[in-house]
Design goal:
The structure holds 2 protein chains of 2 kinds.
Chain A (H helix, E strand, L loop, with lengths): L2 E2 L2 E2 H32 L6 H19 L3 H22 L9 H23 L15 E3 L4 E3 H23 L1 H11 L1 H6 L4 H27 L7 H14 L4 H21 L7 H12 L10
Antiparallel strand pairs in A: 1-2, 3-4
Chain B lengths: L1 H6 L6 H23 L8 H16 L5 H23 L4 H21 L16 E2 L3 E2 L3 H23 L2 H11 L1 H6 L4 H27 L9 H14 L6 H16 L5 H15 L4 H9 L5
Antiparallel strand pairs in B: 1-2
Helix pairs in contact in B: 2-6, 2-9, 2-10, 2-11, 3-4, 3-9, 4-9, 6-9, 7-9, 10-11, 10-12, 10-13
The chains are: A mainly alpha, B mainly alpha.
Chain lengths: 295, 296
């Protein structure tokens, strides 16, 4: 067996693959956070809980209605997105005139409620979710074994991330969105319905989290606490990347996933903390984040 | 309040009241930062837990006397406050909250892996020892008196700080940071000082709590603890003198009452958060103060 720096290549590439998978979820989640933050100026603490809701939604669709993975991939984000829109209309919309702090506290409270309810119902052990039959098995690439489903997760999240980037940066709808981020009052004066845009943006950001949740279900199992610790890592990713740029959050997400994977190979003790250490270093050198602008 | 905590042990369990006082001090320390400095820390559990582990280790393994164990724990928290504060004050507002949360999570993983914390078991059977070599703290009343004195000292110190020129500058920074900067105040130094002070007092609460329960565990460093102290302060009233004490009393009573019901505690806490934010943002004491037209 070949070795690189004393580590078998099989293990190295295996961990890099896991890193890329984690990176896909970091990218999807931090992208959703960045989109929401841009327009609402709210850090969505419920994001982790909504990611978990996505996975649970897929599980329910299968267990109750026999609806499989592919439909769940479209339906779960839609359903969770609608719950997000309801939350935005009923609660968040009352807080826009206040200090941003209250949005943070409200979404934190909601996350506690959702996770607490799920834990009451299902305990803390995970529920397995079968991966779709079409993607079972894998490819032998010669230097490593690549399970089909994992390849699909990486490709799908890359496509979704890039599509989001394209819509926001290159289309007319995206230009409205960016304009409203800069100056909502002026955009409203041009006759664009900004409140509705804000609502839909929140729904979209939440849907992204749910989409990530469905994709995570076959890999990590469906667990009430799956989003609780993940969201803190994603916050660190967001601080490192800065929320100024869409492409920035995508790149940072994937890159940090890879770095975490590498740490697992070379210095496993630090694999949980490496992202936080990187955050501290970035804060010392470039406080606004790698792609951010200070504001 | 002095009367309340002097007479309350006649009707309520002293251990319960000691827990309330420790958390009240913790919440007051947190309030100094959020209520007067306008800095939202979501990682205050790291100070509570660090001081807890440090003093438990000092008392149990190194055989420190209780007063030195508490001082050592508090000093460790102060040091952590300096380091994390230097990083966190580089950003404002929501970023500040996310950075403190991430740093606290890092400390949590650190304590999970360090052998001296004994992981899930925690440091158990921490000896209370003899205060100044004279007073045996294993008795409930001696311990109660110590906690009472520590709590009152911390509370009065915070009261003094808030009403000092330093406290006024802090409020000015909260209201309008660029203006305070243009008036010639070194804003970052004030923020850091407030942060370290808050960390130190949170550490004092954590070290005292460990002696009361003779246990230092991972619960105290977990992010749920950071959320809990935010909730206590919010419910009692941000930026009020007595709010955090009342908030701590309500939340700890509720937890005691709901203890058998598992994660319903989490759900209830979440619901209280939502109700507080949506309907009474001033908190219990803040609303009361508005009714009688006097800040409490």
């Amino acid at each position: 067996m070949t070795e690189i720096f004393g580590v078998p290549t099989q293990a190295l590439f295996g961990q890099l693959l896991i890193g890329l998978i984690n990176g896909s979820f970091y990218a999807l989640l931090s992208l959703g956070l960045a989109v929401i933050f841009g327009l609402l100026n709210i850090i969505n603490f419920t994001h982790g809980a909504q990611y978990m809701m996505g996975a649970f939604c897929a599980y329910f669709l299968l267990a109750r209605f026999g609806i499989g993975y592919w439909w769940a991939l479209a339906l779960a984000p839609l359903i969770v997105g609608v719950t997000g829109i309801i939350v935005e209309r009923l609660m968040l919309s009352r807080l826009y005139k206040l200090d941003h702090l209250y949005g943070l506290l409200l979404t934190f409270g909601l996350a506690l409620v959702i996770q607490g309810l799920a834990r009451n119902e299902y305990g803390t052990s995970g529920i397995p979710y079968a991966m779709p039959g079409e993607l079972a098995g894998g490819q032998n690439l010669g230097f490593m074994f690549l399970p089909n489903y994992r390849a699909w997760v990486i490709v799908a999240s890359l496509v979704v991330c890039l599509a989001t980037w394209f819509v926001i940066e290159k289309t007319k709808l995206g230009s409205y969105l960016r304009a409203a981020t800069e100056n909502p009052a002026l955009v409203q004066a041009f006759g664009i319905n900004v409140p509705r845009m804000i609502t839909l943006t929140y729904g979209f950001g939440v849907a992204l989290a749910a989409f990530a949740g469905v994709m995570a279900a076959p890999i990590y199992q469906v667990n009430p606490l799956m989003g609780a610790d993940l969201i803190i890592v994603v916050f660190a990713v967001v601080v490192i990347g800065g929320m100024g740029s869409i492409m920035g959050s995508i790149v940072t997400g994937f890159a940090l996933g890879l770095i975490e994977g590498l740490t697992k190979v070379f210095y496993p003790e630090a694999s949980n903390t490496v992202i936080f250490v990187i955050m501290a270093i970035v804060l010392m050198i470039k406080p606004a984040g790698l792609f951010g602008t200070q504001r | 309040m002095v009367a309340f905590f002097s007479l309350a042990p006649l009707v309520a369990y002293p251990v319960f009241l000691m827990k309330v006082m420790c958390f009240a001090l913790f919440a007051c320390a947190f309030n100094l930062l959020i209520g007067y400095g306008g800095l939202v820390s979501f990682g205050h559990a790291m100070f509570l837990g660090t001081a807890g582990y440090a003093s438990a280790h000092a008392a149990k393994v190194w055989g420190f006397a209780p007063e030195f164990a508490i001082l050592f724990g508090t000093a460790c928290s102060a040091l952590l406050g300096v380091v994390s504060g230097l990083l966190a004050i580089r950003r404002q507002g929501i970023y500040f909250a996310m950075i403190t949360l991430a740093l606290a999570q890092m400390m949590y993983f650190f304590y999970v892996q360090m052998p001296f914390t004994h992981g899930e078991d925690g440091i158990q059977a921490v000896p209370r020892g003899r205060l100044f070599g004279l007073i045996d703290l294993s008795g409930t009343w001696a311990m109660y008196a110590l906690v009472f004195v520590v709590f009152m000292a911390g509370f009065l110190l915070i009261h003094r700080v808030v009403h000092s020129p330093f406290g006024q500058v802090l409020k000015a920074i909260r209201e309008n940071e660029p203006r305070a900067l243009s008036l010639g105040y070194d804003v970052n130094r004030y923020k850091l000082l407030a942060y370290v002070l808050s960390a130190t007092l949170a550490g004092l609460a954590g070290a005292t709590k460990v002696l009361v329960f003779e246990l230092a565990s991972l619960t105290d460093v977990h992010w749920t603890m950071s959320g809990e102290v935010v909730l206590m302060t919010l419910l009692g009233g941000l930026g009020t003198v007595f709010g955090p004490v009342v908030g701590a009393l309500i939340i700890i009573s509720m937890e005691n009452y709901l203890a058998q019901m598992g994660s319903w505690v989490t759900v209830t806490q979440g619901v209280i958060f939502v109700i507080c934010v949506l309907t009474f943002r001033r908190g219990v004491i803040g609303e009361l103060g508005r009714l009688i037209g006097k800040p409490l």
